[in-house]
Design a protein that fits this description.
Rossmann fold; alpha/beta; seven-stranded parallel beta sheet
Length: 323
């Protein structure tokens, strides 16, 4: 039985990955910070099937202790601060959690016996590419991060590539597209649009022409599982995305049609009141990934279309609404 440790197990992708690995028969552990009134709803359906260990990725000693306690065959490093706009107001926190946190996890692996026999699979992001001259974005492009969040992830991304080469660690870095299918956080685009439309509230879309590549959570998780299972993934960096771009305007209108929401209540070019500041020049107008490499080498491919994925999100949040 493969022993797996997940940092960020309480997060969006981490909780779904834990569910998948439990279903696949792995022995699953998760790193969680000690906080008062911990809400375990996100993993409530598998709480008896996973073992939680205390740790904070931004603190090396606690990470090292968690890694030594579990002694995993595979570490999935998914813990991160992720809202891009917030990073402009909290840049030092993002560097500590995302860049230093990644270093802490990688160096903790070196403390294990025979570290070269283990595997580290880490989440980077499509945001690391920044503003590029052409699309779709390939793994060979230089990284030009345009936000503190993206810079922190790019630094961790490159650091791990160095660790794979210089310390002979087995590992893989995945750069996923925008993912959706959250159940406990409605602050991201798809979930925001769905929940507000279902509630009949006004919608704000600050950048209606911005284009993104949206990938359903199950396809995102499958990328990590394939990277774990296939030795060809060792030392590699992979984009994970559908290669299909959709603008915020198109996404909103698609959802409005499915939900029966009046498009006149969509405010294009306006952000919600109190929305975090982001310098306009830093905004990437389009992020669409070329995922040919992971398709060819690992056999990954998206299985859920955007239309079907949105139907699943709508169905979930409809079922949650008071009767």
């Amino acid at each position: 039985m493969t022993r797996v440790l997940i940092t960020g197990i309480m997060g969006f992708i981490g909780s779904h990955l834990a569910q998948r690995l439990v279903n696949d028969g792995a022995e699953v552990y998760g790193v969680v910070r000690r906080v008062a009134n911990r809400n375990l709803d996100v993993i409530s359906n598998i709480i008896r099937d996973v073992t939680l260990v205390s740790g904070d990725v931004s603190d090396y000693v606690s990470v090292r202790n968690a890694v030594k306690t579990v002694n995993p065959d595979v570490i999935f490093h998914l813990a991160a601060l992720s809202p891009v706009r917030d990073s402009f107001e909290r840049p030092f926190e993002y560097q500590q959690a995302n860049y230093i946190g990644t270093m802490n996890v990688a160096h903790s692996m070196l403390e294990l016996q025979d570290p070269q026999t283990r595997k580290l699979i880490a989440a980077s992001t499509a945001e690391v590419y920044g503003i590029q001259a052409s699309e779709p974005l390939k793994e060979t492009l230089p990284l030009h991060p345009s936000s503190p969040y993206a810079a922190s992830k790019a630094a961790g991304d490159l650091y791990l590539q160095m660790m794979f080469n210089s310390f002979s660690l087995k590992g893989t870095v995945l750069r996923p597209a925008n993912s959706y299918g959250r159940k406990f956080d409605a602050s991201f685009m798809v979930e925001y649009l769905v929940t507000k439309m279902l509630a009949g509230e006004k919608i704000y879309i600050g950048a209606p022409d911005s284009v993104r590549d949206y990938m359903y959570v199950d396809d995102h998780v499958n990328g990590y599982v394939l990277a774990m299972k296939n030795p060809a993934a060792n030392g590699q960096v992979y984009n994970v995305g559908t290669t299909i771009g959709v603008s915020n305007r198109e996404l909103a209108l698609m959802l409005a049609g499915k939900i029966g929401f009046n498009p006149k209540n969509i405010a294009l070019g306006s952000y919600p009141p109190g929305y975090p500041y982001r310098p306009l020049v830093s905004d990437q107008s389009s992020i669409v990934l070329d995922s040919a490499k992971i398709r060819q080498q690992l056999g990954w491919q998206p299985t859920v279309s955007l239309s079907d994925g949105l139907d699943r999100v709508i169905g979930y949040f409809k079922a949650k609404r008071p009767k």
